[in-house]
Write a structure and sequence with these properties.
- Belongs to the alpha-ketoglutarate dehydrogenase family.
- Its EC number is 1.2.4.2.
- Pfam families: 2-oxogl_dehyd_N, E1_dh, OxoGdeHyase_C, Transket_pyr.
- Keywords: Oxidoreductase, Thiamine pyrophosphate.
- The chain contains 31 helices and 25 strands.
- It is an alpha/beta fold.
- The protein folds into four domains: about 90 residues, no CATH class; about 325 residues, 3-Layer(aba) Sandwich (Rossmann fold); about 250 residues, Rossmann fold (3-Layer(aba) Sandwich), CATH 3.40.50.12470; about 130 residues, 3-Layer(aba) Sandwich (Rossmann fold).
- Helix 28 links the parallel strand 21 and strand 22.
- Helix 8 crosses helix 10, helix 12 crosses helix 22 and helix 21 runs parallel beside helix 26.
- It starts with a helix and ends with a helix.
Length: about 950
């Protein structure tokens, strides 16, 4: 702070003269912890002049020096006539008044009127009592400076100030924002709350709109309850204000220029949102309740998991709405929504988040109980996953599943306390005050758009029925549900208020109820703002109803491949590489010139280059993706002199697709869910999630089970996401060996995804290109190699890339006489090279080795062609590194039996069944590996 400004501020605040003791105490607190004092004081102390010539960053200074400095400012001001002569008693009181204001900003929410049922038993906050600060009844009529309190002018009578503070911070809104360290954000919130005392002033049009939303929310639930008694619908009743809240958010966002909103929510109120916000036809919903089924819709899903899309008209323009499909794992949809939003923003070229906004709706127990929420908060400001902030709404019905005692479901005062980890502002609001809810909804949109950060709305409400409509809540919550039975609905409360205000007549209220019910009877859309979709910018039509074996052309001429390979091996002049990286790039130049065969990293990178050249996006996320966990990729180069970076794949062509490669946060579930959401909103490019080790996918199992493997079958959602899962038994122990191939194969059905185990650089090149060039979008699961990245036999020529295609099955490569072969070994992955090297070493010529590179969908036709020369063989073996109860053996052997000739036998060569994926002792690992090689090759 400039010295002159600081001086004026001190004088106008009456903090000179008699208050030197207070200043000293404040300075002492600042020295111990700068965050313990207000931002104003912190700015003052941060800018104190050096003492005795010391550096200004020296934190310690004598208190007498500080006191003398403040006194000199005050004396100088008085000599110039800038300040009155202070009254010590008044000045001391003035300090206490400012402390009182601060207390309401910090803790007013703890005495706010938030619970519609008035069941919360909350202790009075002592700091909110003027007496706590030494202010007496005699002080109430005195005028005091109000500091930065933004209401009523620079001075107010203490009584008026106290009433204003109570109205602002202890009414229907409980504002938590003083945990934020950014002064601008705090001041912004104060300027929105304090001038209006935390209340909005709405005209009749907006009040009618709010009432219409409440009427729709209540009318929908009552209608379903009467038409389908006892059916599960996870009613919104008690939290009805969610509907007008969402409407106000959409209207406000439309005014600000938002074009798309993606919503994620769990069960509670979902049917209401589908019908009353997104405009799903009630007739369609009623058919679902009646159990009608369409054969072409796969397995389908329950009503309260369904998604929907539509356009919503606002005065600022139409807004495209998308409600994400959601399984029963309640909070896992949040990163999916964020990924979908990021994809839409990237496609629009939106870098500030304004054009596409996420809204996530949480339960009060779920938001604090499920770790994916913390993961998503942690991602919210990172480069790879930021979306310009999200609006998070907690439908806080004060009870989780069966418990209303928050001590059973969390360890914090509020369920929203988790948001403080990212310093998000939190607004608790009484759901029975719809205008307060609308006010905070609008504030939330403005804050998000201004600061590009998350904001939480804690909609404190209740649940009129049990967890579902078949539940009897009074069995466990007798007092709460006794109160609920007597409590009028929010619609009734608000309608009566409007009637008393003469904003609407009782007849109009009755007509609104009847009109809405008539609209439900007709079964047509009940959202007047609904419009046919025109704003959705992705066309999935080219990818619908595509088959696995559809012919496609993915060839790239050899000479052009050489040019691309050379281009992505170039490094700017003067850019100093680390020595090992320099060797890799030197080798890649030789590979581009045809002087060396391509290794894994070179072929993989070349695949990306060819995709980018098609102007398609390549997006890769993983914990070591830029470098590659096993030091093979190096798509992000680091200058050893100045730390700058260079990405060759961003310099493929003058006009190319975007290349995004991100070293992700140290999370699996949230990152994979984000990338799934991204891929469902961006079908044209290549999206990859790479695990640091394949078995880390365990932490993302919910995403794999509920979205990747079944999303198309349940919801008709296509997704072309690729998962690279390092897999291979290298003696690194149980947690660094297996990507749990068996789990993915168990999930395979209905051609829902691909599971591949490529064994050559050419194979990975064609596999990745196929995922983009082939017009089919389904997940690709890759058992990715570790030691093969640098294996001397795992190399390919440029010709194999230019002229070949992905081979689902690779036949015997050595020139064996098929008539001499009496054993055929099937295998996948790294073990192939160990079998090959041992066979060559032992000069075995009667055992053929066939690689199955795609385990699902199983390549029956290709394998039949390869086996044509071995119809006389009776001895077939499946060889794997994994234990017998894992890997492909149990899940795929029926395919092997189908493939081998009639009368032939199939046996197993591999590790014995084991509870652990692999052993941790190197000696035991080596022994097991040797045993399975001997068994497969029939060595004695």
């Amino acid at each position: 702070m400039h010295q002159g400004i600081m001086k004026a501020w001190l004088e106008s605040s009456h903090l000179n003269g008699a208050n030197s003791t207070y200043v000293e105490e404040m300075y002492e607190a600042y020295q111990e912890d700068p965050e313990s004092v207000s931002a104003d004081w912190r700015a003052v102390f941060d800018n104190l002049p050096p003492v005795n010539g010391a550096s200004s960053d020296v934190p310690e200074a004598a208190h007498s020096k500080i006191r003398d400095y403040f006194r000199s400012l005050a004396t100088e001001g008085r000599h110039k006539g800038a300040a009155r002569v202070s009254d010590p008693e008044v000045d001391a009181k003035q300090v206490k008044v400012l402390q009182l204001i601060n207390a309401y900003r910090f803790r007013g929410h703890q005495n706010a009127n938030l619970d519609p049922l008035e069941l919360w038993k909350r202790d009075k906050v002592a700091e909110l009592d003027p007496a706590f600060h030494g202010l007496t009844a005699e002080d109430m009529q005195r005028e005091f400076n109000t500091g930065s309190f933004d209401h009523g002018g620079e001075t107010m009578k203490l009584a008026d100030l106290l009433n204003s503070l109570k109205a602002t911070y202890c009414g229907s809104i409980g504002a938590e924002y003083m945990h934020i360290t950014d002064t601008e954000e705090k001041r912004w919130i104060q300027h929105r709350l304090e001038p209006t005392l935390g209340k909005a002033s709405y005209d009749q049009k907006v009040k009618h709109r709010i009432l219409e939303g409440l009427n729709a929310a209540e009318g929908m639930e009552k209608y379903l309850g009467a038409k389908f008694p006892g059916a599960k619908r996870f009613s919104l009743e008690g939290g009805d204000t969610l509907v007008p809240m969402l409407r106000e958010i959409i209207y406000r966002a439309g005014d600000a220029g938002t074009k798309e909103i993606v919503i994620g929510m769990a069960h509670r109120g979902r049917l209401n949102v589908l019908v009353n916000i997104l405009g799903k036809r009630p007739a369609e919903l009623f058919d679902e309740f009646a159990g009608k089924h369409h054969d072409n819709l796969g397995s389908g899903d329950v009503k309260y998991h369904q998604g929907f899309s539509s356009d919503f008209e606002t005065p600022g323009g139409n807004v495209h709405l998308a409600l994400a499909f959601n399984p029963s794992h309640l909070e896992i949809v949040n990163p999916v929504v964020m990924g979908s939003v990021r994809a839409r923003q990237d496609r629009r070229g939106c870098t500030d988040g304004l054009q596409v906004m996420p809204i996530t709706i949480h339960g009060d127990s779920a938001i604090t109980g499920q770790g994916i929420v913390q993961e998503t908060f942690n991602m919210s400001q990172t480069r790879a996953y930021k979306v310009g902030g999200s609006i998070r709404i907690v439908v806080n019905n004060q009870v989780g599943f069966t418990t209303s005692n928050h001590q059973d479901v969390r360890s914090t005062e509020y369920s929203t306390d988790i948001a403080k980890m990212v310093q998000a502002p939190i607004f608790h609001v009484n759901a029975d005050d719809p205008e307060a809810v609308a006010f905070i909804a609008q504030l939330a949109v403005d804050f998000r758009n201004t600061f590009k950060r998350d904001i939480l709305i804690d909609l404190v409400c209740y649940r009129r029925h049990g967890h579902n409509e078949a539940d009897e809540p009074s069995a466990t919550q007798p007092l709460m549900y006794s109160k609920i039975k007597k409590h009028p609905t929010t619609r009734k409360i608000y309608a009566d208020n409007l009637i008393n205000q003469q904003s609407i007549s009782a007849e109009e209220v009755t007509a609104m109820v009847n009109d809405y019910r008539d609209a439900l009877d007709k079964g047509d859309c009940v959202v007047k703002e609904w419009r046919p979709m025109t704003l959705h910018t992705v066309d999935w039509t080219p990818y619908l109803n595509r088959e696995w074996d559809e012919v496609y052309d993915a060839t790239v001429p050899l000479e052009h491949l050489k040019e691309l390979a050379s281009k992505i091996s170039d490094v700017p002049e003067g850019f100093k590489l680390q020595s090992r990286v320099e060797k890799i790039y030197s080798d890649r130049k030789s590979m581009a010139a045809g002087e060396k065969l391509l290794d894994w990293g070179a072929a993989e990178t070349l695949a990306y280059a060819t995709i980018l050249e098609l102007r398609k996006r390549v997006r890769i996320s993983g914990q070591d993706s830029g470098r590659g966990t096993f030091f093979h990729r190096h798509s992000v180069l680091h200058n050893q002199n100045d730390g700058t970076t260079y990405l060759p794949l961003r310099n493929v062509a003058d006009k190319q697709g975007p290349f995004d490669i991100n070293d992700s946060v140290l999370s699996e579930a949230s990152v994979l869910a984000f990338e799934y959401g991204y891929a469902t909103a961006e079908p044209e490019g290549l999206g990859i999630w790479e695990a640091q080790f394949g078995d880390f996918a365990n932490c993302a199992q919910v995403v794999i089970d509920q979205f990747l493997s079944s999303g198309e079958q349940k919801w008709g959602r296509l997704c072309g996401l690729t998962m690279l899962l390092p897999h291979g038994y290298e003696g690194q122990g149980p947690e660094h060996s297996s990507a749990r191939l068996e789990r993915f194969l168990q999930l395979c059905a209905n051609h829902n995804m691909q599971v591949c185990v490529p064994s050559t650089p050419a194979q990975v090149y064609h596999m990745l290109r196929r995922q983009v060039v082939r017009p089919m979008r389904r997940p690709l699961v890759v058992m990715s190699p570790k030691s093969l990245l640098r294996h001397p036999l795992a190399v390919s020529s440029l010709e194999e890339l230019a002229e070949g295609t992905f081979q689902n099955v690779i036949a015997e490569v050595d020139s064996l006489d098929p008539t001499k072969v009496d054993r055929v070994v099937f295998c996948s992955g790294k073990v192939y090279y160990e079998l090959l090297e041992r066979r060559r070493k032992e000069n075995i010529d009667n055992v053929a080795i066939i690689r199955i590179e795609q385990l699902y969908p199983f390549p029956h036709e290709e394998l039949a062609k390869v086996l044509a020369d071995y119809q006389h063989v009776k001895d077939f073996v499946w060889c794997q590194e994994e234990p017998q109860n894992q890997g492909a053996w149990y899940c795929s052997q029926h395919h092997f039996w189908t493939a081998i000739p009639k009368g032939a036998q199939l046996s197993y060569a591999g590790r014995e069944a084991s509870a652990a994926p692999a052993c941790g002792y190197p000696e035991l690992h080596t022994h097991q590996q040797e045993s399975l090689i001997i068994s497969a090759l029939n060595l004695k």
